[in-house]
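Title: Prediction job returns without error message
Component: structure pipeline
Severity: low
Priority: P3
Assignee: unassigned

Description:
Job completed but the reporter wants confirmation the result is attached to the right record. Sequence as submitted:
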Amino acid sequence: MSPFTGPEPWKTQGVRTEGQAAPAKESYPDGFLDAFPKPERSQFKKPADYTRAKARWEQDLKYFKQAGVPPDLSPEDLAAATAVAETWGMGKPRIYEGRYGWMVRFPDSKLPAFETDVNGLTLGMHQTVARYQVRMMQNGMKPSTRHPFVPPHVEPKIDK
């Protein structure tokens, strides 16, 4: 259909005229944006990186079920894991249920897309910290304090 058909062709192009209501504001499930900050074009050096991040974000939205704490996670265990994560610079964990069950993300960290399952948060938090630091180094970042579980041969990747 041509946009120039009909007596008011501008209406097919999303142009608002006086008296028309503004389009509805985007809405997302409760807690989704806390765990999955929306990627902005300005965050990426390459357009392709932004395109991939946006596609991944939209897929995460599609499979997002809920944010919160799983029923079998005690407040004490969550507090202990949160303290470890914050001590090692990962920030506050954000727990959500998605297509792979209950998962944890650290959006306030240097690697906001890093995630683990809830067992990684509660049963193996120090292994999770080590995995996070290895991933940091693979991305050219150096942790302020290296966790003792990070293998000694792992060094930050330096782009030349």
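Comment from assignee: result matches the submitted record. Residues 28-138 form one domain.
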